[in-house]
Amino acid sequence: MPGEDADSALRAASQFKAQGISSALTRLGENITRVEEADEVAAHYLKLLDRTAASGLDAEVSVKLTQLGFDLDGERTFAHARRLAERALATRRTVWIDMEGSAYTERTVAFYERMKQVCANTGLCLQAYLHRTAADVDRLMPLDPAIRIVKGAYAEPPAIAFQTGEQIDRNYIALSRAMLEAARDGRRIRIALGTHDVTLISEIAGYAAELGLPKASFEVQMLYGIRVDEQRRLAGEGYPVRDLICYGAAWYPWYMRRLAERPANVMFALRQLLP
Ligand SMILES: Cc1cc2nc3c(=O)[nH]c(=O)nc-3n(C[C@H](O)[C@H](O)[C@H](O)COP(=O)(O)OP(=O)(O)OC[C@H]3O[C@@H](n4cnc5c(N)ncnc54)[C@H](O)[C@@H]3O)c2cc1C
User: Fold this and answer.
1) Nearest 5°: phi and psi at 132?
2) Which among 17, 40, 75, 150 counts the fewest CB atoms within 10 Å?
3) Residue in 55, 48, 257, 239 with CA at minimum distance from that of residue 150
4) Per-residue pLDDT for 29 more than 60?
């Protein structure tokens, strides 16, 4: 994280801009307990959208529905998400919806379908570790979707999710290929590869080239501070790259998921605690 406040995130975004890298901004927080907190979160993002528009940054926002009150009041969450997308439309930006744990998957996909009826400029994250995701991609295809495909960050059971890295990678590639083929066939789909796995990215890039698609047929999205050298390399090679910059005080659950992803990070964090 560049810092806990929006100023730090915007500063980081303008540094990335100078390197030809776009940004997505997320204020950390999830599963709020009072519906008024959702109003505050929505107001924060509206102001942030105004600030990114005024500064000329190619910065989009990425939100968790539970941060906008999804557990408490679905209609209010919808109204908030709609206002954000309408505000982002003024600068022709997309509002991304993160995907949370599997208890939310169906509701989130249905929410996205409803959002697309009223605001075309919304995107959804889908997780390659879930068995259902291939069907979700097919289901969303007629909506001309914007899909960010990630491996998935929550602990999900074998009944619904692939468990090994190999299976997840295989599904990630299959899903990406299906989306690229749809793009080749003329479907208006925005494809974002949300991964730091450069082996996967290069395999998918190779397939896009085989299909005769330009480098801009997909975008790479990576998290702030991870594989920054690769973000610069890919941008230098002409691939659209977007850095997802997280900020905010509620970083704990997010940080724990990042630690769990990579055992080396646990050792790194523990070493910081030593005198
Ligand atoms: C832009 C973006 C948005 C995301 N949004 C969501 C979402 O909405 N819902 C969701 O469930 N998940 C989301 N994720 C997280 C995602 O599901 C994975 O948990 C995460 O990206 C790690 O998997 P990977 O694809 O990078 O592959 P991995 O196989 O885990 O990693 C590949 C390589 O990247 C490097 N790397 C990966 N993670 C780290 C790390 N934490 N620290 C240091 N190095 C690392 C390592 O070198 C590793 O070998 C998002 C990820 C990104 C990049």
Assistant:
1) -75, -10
2) 75
3) 257
4) yes
List active site positions: 98, 148
**Cα(26)–Cα(8) distance, integer angstroms:** 12
Question: In 3D, which of 272, 267, 204, 265 has the Cα closest to residue 234?
Answer: 204
What global pTM score does this model have?
Answer: 0.93
Q: Which of 164, 169, 170, 262, when mutated, tests ligand 1's pocket best, judged by the most ligand atoms within 8 Å of its CB?
A: 262
Q: Establish whether residue 64 lines the binding site of ligand 1, counting it when its CB lies within 6 angstroms of any ligand atom.
A: no
Answer yes or no: is the C-beta of 29 below 6 A from any ligand 1 atom. Answer: no
Q: Which of 82, 51, 72, 26 is nearest to 245 (CA)?
A: 26
pLDDT single digits (tens) 174-188: 999 999 999 999 999
**What is the C-alpha separation between 133 and 173, in angstroms, rounded?**
12
